[in-house]
Amino acid sequence: MATLQQVASRAGCSLATASRVLNRNGPVSDIMVRKVRRAAAELGYRPASTVAGKGGRRPVIGVLIPSITNPVFSSSLSSIENRMLVAGHGVLIAQSHYDPAREADAVAALLNDRPTGLILTLCDASASRLLSPSLPPTVLLNNMPTSSFPAAVTVNNHRAGRELTELLLGLGHRRILFVSGTFSASDRARARHEGYRLAMIEYDLDPLDAVQVPFVGGYDQLDLSAALTAFSPSAIIASNDLLAFGVIGALRREGLAVPRDISVAGFDGIAIGRLMDPPLTTIEMPDASMGATAASLLLDMAENAAPVRHLEVAHVLRRGGTVRDITGT
Prior knowledge:
CATH class of the domain at 157-285: Alpha Beta
Number of strands: 12
Radius of gyration: 23 Å
Order of helices and strands: HHHHEHEHEEEHEHEHEHEHEHEE
CATH superfamily of the domain at 157-285: Response regulator
Largest sheet: 6 strands, parallel
Mean pLDDT: 89
Structural class: alpha/beta
Distance between the termini: 75 Å
CATH architecture of the domain at 157-285: 3-Layer(aba) Sandwich
Shape: elongated
Number of helices: 12
């Protein structure tokens, strides 16, 4: 079994520097961090704290998600846990409940267990108050990379919003309403709306004002009566599938049928949407593979000194029966 002295020798540094890098307990330059981690990986060295974990426990990573009840995040979390199980790591979970103010406290709680690294889905990565220098290796999941968090696994939500809007425009819809969770709680929803907005403008149409509702709450009680009166939409895009289900319920309470009276589409591609009658039109996101990819990237960064990367995963447009062609009407 390789020793710490062998790692230090291969990396060309002192024993103390190698120890600080591998135990993350002191200032070291980024270049030296990469050299020491690469040497440790090449030699197969793992510090006792990594093998057994603090107090004899196995090592862990921390994961922050907005809500564990959302199938999107539970799917990603399941694949993260499976990948980490193979690597011998446990997974600690924290939730922000779509509240940016709670993110710092949630991450601080995760850091109490000295995780190998973090996988974070933030409300808005560009506005986050988290400071990367104080964090272990960190990968964003679903957020675009920033200067503070350059490692990320994403889909192109802007392009997805544009594609879904273009589908509806091609079917003859011109008054398309965007219903979303609050943009401050999800930069993903904001990017999807921006894609919608630009698609409308390219068709020389005025985008309708978005209807924003809280992510945390009862979608089953969604009331769209005021928006329907104000905008008279022929189609509604919801910023996620769960909200799309709420939109369909709200339309039915108004005596309207989908898609006969109003077409509805969403984002995420969760399984229950395929079981609906008719099936939901949606942008399918590869949540499980994204979680596994984020886990692999984090391990590569933390244990092999791999460079940070932004990995983009493809989405797929799934047309179901909740939208209809009105070009002939």
